[in-house]
C-alpha cells in the first residue's frame, strides 16, 4: 500500500492511502459516465433535430435506445454489487435528521468559503462512509429516484404500445416525455457539477486519478 | 489532576485514528495516535491514558494481544476494541479480556463519543466480571452466522429505505436550509453587535 508521512502533534504519522473505490465500482462509474454522455448527446440530437447534425434522427434514436438499455443493465450491476457488499453502508440513510442537516450545512459552509480559506474538511472519508452529507443525499436521490424514473419514462417511450397502460396511468405521453426531459436536464446539471467537484481534491487531478486507481489520498 | 481526559487510538489505518482524533478533540479530549500495537504499548508506558482504542486487525500485534497486555499491566485502563464486519468471534475473544466496549466500523461521531463516555463511566473490573463467563468457544457458530445474517439483512433494509428517507430530506431541504441560513445570519449579526 502506498504511504506518505505527515506531521502530527505527538507523532510523525505514516498515513496510508485509503482504498475507497473498489474495482467493480470504478468499472460501473466509467461505463455509466460514458453511457450518460452518449445519452445526453443523442438525446440532444433527438430533441433538437433541426439544430444539430451529428447523425440522422433514426441513428440517434437507435443509439439512444441501445445505450439506454446498457445503462439500465449497469444500474442493476450497481444495485446488486452494493446489496452484496459491506460497502452498502455508503448509501445508508442518516436516521438522525438533525445531525444530518447540521453536517449538511457544515459541508455547505465549507464549499461556500471554507475551501477557499484552507479550512479543515468537515467530512473524513472512510471506505464505509465515503460520501459527505451533500454527496450522500445527492447520490441517494440520483441513484434511487432520478435514475429509475428516467429509465421507466425512457422505456415507456421506447415502446409506446407495449406500455400504453402505464403511459395512461402516468397522464399520457406528453407527461412521460416531460418527465424524461426534466430528468435529462437534471442529469446534465448533475454531470457538470460532478465534474467541477472532481477538481476539488487535494490536487485538481486527485479525484480523477482516484477513480482509476481506487485509492484516495487523504487530505492532510 | 489532568485537565483533559487522555485518549490513545491504536490503529494501522491512520484515517480511522484521525476520525476519532477529530471527534474527541472537538469534544475536549486529548488524543494521541499510534500505528501499531507495539507503538501503542510504548506510549502507554510513558503516559497515563484514560481510554485506549485499539483496532482488532493490525499487522504485527493484533488488538486482542494489545488488550491482553493492557489488562495485565494496567487493569484499570478501559480499552475499546474497534472491529470491522463479521468479527463476532474476535469480539467474543476480546470480551473475555474484559474490554470496556466494541465499536464497529463505520464509525460515526455519535458512536465514538458514546463509547468513550461509557468506557470512562464503567469501572473496568465490573465489566471484566460481567464478561468472565463468556469464552470464545462458548460462542456457537450458528449464533455468529445468525448475527452476520442479521447484520446483512439490516444493511439491505437500510439500503432499501434510503430512497424514501432521501426523498423526505430533499423535500425538507429548502425549509431547513432557510432556517439554517436565518440562524447563521442571526448568530453572525449578534457576534458583530457584541464585538462593536
Essential attributes:
A: mainly alpha, 7 helices, 4 strands, 64% helix, disordered N terminus, B: 196 residues, alpha/beta, Rossmann fold, 2 domains, flat
Structure description:
- The complex is a heterodimer of chains A (220) and B (196).
- Chain A has 220 residues and is mainly α.
- Helix content of chain A is 64%, strand content 6%.
- Chain A contains seven helices and four strands.
- In chain A, strands 1-2 form a two-stranded antiparallel sheet. In chain A, strands 3-4 form a two-stranded antiparallel sheet.
- Chain A is globular and about 55 Å long.
- The longest helix of chain B has 55 residues.
- Chain B is 60% helix and 12% strand.
- In chain B, strand 4, helix 4 and strand 5 form a beta-alpha-beta unit.
- Chain B has seven helices and five strands; from the N terminus they run βαβαβαβαβααα.
- Chain B folds into two domains: 134 residues, 3-Layer(aba) Sandwich (Rossmann fold); 57 residues, no CATH class.
- With 196 residues, chain B is α/β, with parallel strands linked by helices.
- At the A-B interface, strand 2, helix 3 and helix 4 of A face helix 1, strand 2 and helix 7 of B.
Amino acid at each position: 500500500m502506498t504511504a506518505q508521512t505527515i506531521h502530527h502533534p505527538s507523532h510523525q504519522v505514516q498515513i496510508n492511502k485509503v482504498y475507497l473505490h473498489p474495482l467493480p465500482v470504478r468499472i460501473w462509474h466509467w461505463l455509466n459516465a460514458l453511457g450518460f454522455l452518449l445519452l445526453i448527446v443523442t438525446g440532444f440530437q433527438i430533441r433538437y433535430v433541426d439544430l444539430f447534425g451529428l447523425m440522422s434522427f433514426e441513428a440517434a434514436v437507435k443509439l439512444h435506445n441501445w445505450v439506454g438499455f446498457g445503462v439500465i443493465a449497469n444500474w442493476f450491476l450497481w444495485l446488486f454489487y452494493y446489496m452484496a457488499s459491506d460497502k452498502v453502508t455508503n448509501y445508508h440513510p442518516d436516521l438522525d435528521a438533525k445531525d444530518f442537516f447540521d453536517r449538511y450545512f457544515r459541508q455547505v459552509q465549507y464549499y461556500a468559503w471554507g475551501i477557499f480559506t484552507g479550512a479543515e474538511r468537515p467530512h473524513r472519508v472512510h471506505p464505509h462512509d465515503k460520501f459527505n452529507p451533500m454527496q450522500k443525499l445527492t447520490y441517494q436521490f440520483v441513484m434511487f429516484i432520478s435514475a429509475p424514473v428516467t429509465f421507466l419514462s425512457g422505456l415507456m417511450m421506447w415502446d409506446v404500445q407495449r406500455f400504453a397502460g402505464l403511459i395512461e396511468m402516468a397522464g399520457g405521453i406528453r407527461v412521460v416525455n416531460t418527465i424524461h426531459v426534466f430528468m435529462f436536464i437534471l442529469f446534465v446539471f448533475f454531470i457538470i457539477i460532478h465534474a467541477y467537484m472532481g477538481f476539488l481534491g487535494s490536487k485538481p487531478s486527485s479525484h480523477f486519478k482516484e477513480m482509476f486507481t481506487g485509492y484516495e489520498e487523504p487530505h492532510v | 489532576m489532568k485537565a483533559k481526559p487522555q485518549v490513545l487510538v491504536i490503529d494501522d489505518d491512520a484515517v480511522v485514528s484521525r476520525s476519532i482524533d477529530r471527534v474527541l478533540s472537538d469534544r475536549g479530549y486529548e488524543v494521541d495516535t499510534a500505528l501499531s500495537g507495539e507503538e501503542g504499548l510504548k506510549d502507554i508506558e510513558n503516559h497515563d491514558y484514560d481510554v485506549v482504542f485499539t483496532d482488532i486487525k493490525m499487522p504485527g500485534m493484533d488488538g486482542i494481544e494489545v488488550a491482553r497486555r493492557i489488562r495485565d499491566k494496567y487493569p484499570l485502563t478501559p480499552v475499546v476494541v474497534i472491529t470491522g464486519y463479521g468479527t463476532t468471534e474476535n469480539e467474543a475473544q476480546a470480551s473475555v479480556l474484559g474490554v470496556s466496549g466494541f465499536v464497529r466500523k463505520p464509525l460515526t461521531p455519535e458512536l465514538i463519543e458514546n463509547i468513550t463516555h461509557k468506557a470512562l463511566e464503567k469501572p473496568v473490573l465490573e465489566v471484566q466480571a460481567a464478561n468472565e463467563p463468556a469464552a470464545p468457544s462458548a460462542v456457537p457458530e450458528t449464533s455468529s452466522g445468525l448475527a452476520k445474517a442479521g447484520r446483512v439483512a439490516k444493511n439491505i433494509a437500510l439500503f432499501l429505505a434510503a430512497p424514501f428517507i432521501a426523498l423526505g430530506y430533499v423535500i425538507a431541504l429548502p425549509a431547513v436550509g432557510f432556517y439554517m441560513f436565518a440562524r447563521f445570519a442571526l448568530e453572525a449579526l449578534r457576534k458583530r453587535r457584541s464585538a462593536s
